[in-house]
Amino acid sequence: MNILRKSVIGHNKLRRMITMIKVLFICHGNICRSPMAEFLFKEMVEEKGMSQLFEIDSAATSSEEIWNGIGNPVYPPVKDLLKKRGIDCSGKRARQVNWDDYHHYDYLICMDQQNYKNLMNLFKKDPDRKISLLLNRQDIEDPWYSGNFEGVYQQIEYGLQVWLEKLTTEA
After folding, report:
1. Which residues of the chain register pLDDT less than 50?
2. Catalytically annotated residue among 33, 57, 95, 110
3. Whether residue 137 lies in the annotated active site
4. Do the Cβ atoms of 119 and 28 come closer than 8 Å?
5. DSSP string spanning 37-57?
6. 110 is catalytic
């Protein structure tokens, strides 16, 4: 305990150095926005040499993209967009968020207000204050409906840069 008191590193920062930061990205179906965020964030932390400090995944609030227990793969336009940027998302399949995720992850980051409300209902509010929006006051549109994959990518990239700065500088 004396080491912590004399250390110039804050307790939370030291804890984060010892344990992984666990982040789960959430959208409606887990085939567009949340896997885009998952794989882009993995790429961002890899580029900074910090991948060993993070556990990153994504999930859906709905089961619409899951059939007989098997999730659909990442939506082809998203997969193509990521591939053009050198990011491989092969093998990813949609999965639905569950109560174990709430206990396992430090941050559950939603793409829009509806995802946020769905999680608040599922988890009976948010006693540990883990649920947030990727962009504080702005929904990220669903490109499955809008077709605006490039614009959504840019929104997600911006939000992830903000979150990465926050998560790596919190003390």
Report:
1. 1-9, 11, 171
2. 33
3. no
4. no
5. HHHHHHHHHHHTT-GGGEEEE
6. no
Residue 124 in tokens: 């009976």
- Pick the catalytic residue: 27, 32, 89, 110? 27
- Paired with 131 in beta bridges are 108
> Full-prediction pTM beyond 0.70?
yes
Do the beta carbons of residue 110 and residue 133 sit within 8 Å?
yes
Q: Is 126 noted as a catalytic residue in this protein?
A: no
Tell me the two tokens of residue 23.
Answer: 């982040």
Residue 91, sorted as left (phi over 0), alpha (psi -120 to 50) or beta, turns out to be: left
Q: Of 57, 101, 112, 142, which one is the catalytic site residue?
A: 142
CA distance 63 to 34: 14
In tens, the pLDDT along 112-155 reads 999 999 999 998 889 899 999 999 889 999 999 999 999 999 99
